[in-house]
Specification:
MetI-like fold, MetI-like, 13 helices, 295 residues, transport, mainly alpha, single chain
């Protein structure tokens, strides 16, 4: 009977298990070794970096002067505050709009929901392009404004479809009983639907937060003032263009090694998402899979 089952239902052989373990180990090392090198380099002294010829793999003492420098004021500290503001405000705006739109489109009796859903899904096939988007953003007066980093990407249609599918999977009897008790749609959404939808809301919120935290191309297009640059824009100018950021109260000669500062900025840029993900991970699979297959 075992020969009639599909191959993926068979018990793995010892060789197969060893091969999977080796493949996973190699993939993990490919990811972790560069991260380790970045972290160690950011905590290395000038002599250690010079001896290693750039990136450091083996730590020789800890020198946190690069972190002290980037948090002591200047353009990097300001960029971190800008990125934090954009991420928090953008995630709240995007989650609010996505949840409201998804709830309305998930109710079969809502007015014009099929037409509206068609226009939302149409954006999967037709994208306006860079030039029209730039003209719209500048035409409505968002140029050199932090709102230019939030409003053009306030709703992701993919996230909208996932949340809508999750809402469609909720029992209609539960919502109907709330209506019989006199609850309005907003009260039903706030008191019943959202508490039951925490997994998908958490996952979609993570998607939005990562997108806003990593924004740099929109900043490259729409932001002209240095004091409004997000951290990704600063990182791009440091790594790719080789520009050194300014730090308040410190001369160039007293600064830590440039390589250590660059790697410290990389660590600070990556760390928030790495720290947040474990708290969302338990909702991740359930939120995406259930939301994607319903409806």
């Amino acid at each position: 009977m075992s020969g009639t089952r599909p191959a993926w239902e068979e018990k793995p052989t010892p060789v197969g298990l060893a091969g999977k373990g080796a493949a996973l180990t190699v993939m993990a090392l490919v990811v972790l070794i560069p991260l380790w090198s970045v972290l160690v380099t950011s905590l290395s002294s000038r002599k250690t970096i010079n001896d290693a010829g750039g990136m450091v793999m083996v730590p020789k003492g800890i020198d946190a002067s690069a972190y002290v420098t980037i948090f002591s004021g200047g353009i990097v500290t300001r960029a971190l505050w800008v990125s934090t503001l954009v991420t928090v405000a953008g995630t709240l705006v995007s989650l609010t709009l996505t949840v409201l739109a998804a709830y309305g489109l998930s109710r079969p009796g809502s007015v014009g929901h099929r037409t509206l859903l068609f226009f939302f899904l149409l954006t999967f096939l037709i994208y306006p392009g860079l030039v029209p988007s730039y003209l719209v953003v500048t035409g409505v007066g968002l140029k050199d404004s932090l709102w230019a980093l939030i409003l053009p990407s306030a709703i992701s249609v993919f996230n909208l479809v996932v949340v809508r599918g999750f809402f469609q999977g909720l029992p209609n009897e539960l919502l109907d009983s709330a209506r019989i008790d006199g609850a309005g749609e907003f009260r039903i959404l706030w008191r019943i639907v959202l508490p039951l939808s925490r997994p998908v809301v958490a996952v979609v919120g993570l998607f939005y937060a990562v997108g806003y935290w990593n924004v740099w191309f929109s900043a490259l297009l729409y932001i002209d003032s240095n004091d409004k640059f997000p951290i990704q824009r600063i990182l791009q100018s440091m790594i790719l263009q080789g520009q050194s950021p300014s730090f308040s109260g410190q001369s160039v000669g007293s600064l830590p090694p440039t390589q250590a500062i660059k790697m410290a900025v990389v660590v600070v840029t990556v760390a928030p998402i790495v720290l947040i993900y474990p708290f969302i991970q338990r909702h991740f699979v359930k939120g995406v899979i259930v939301g994607a297959i319903k409806g």
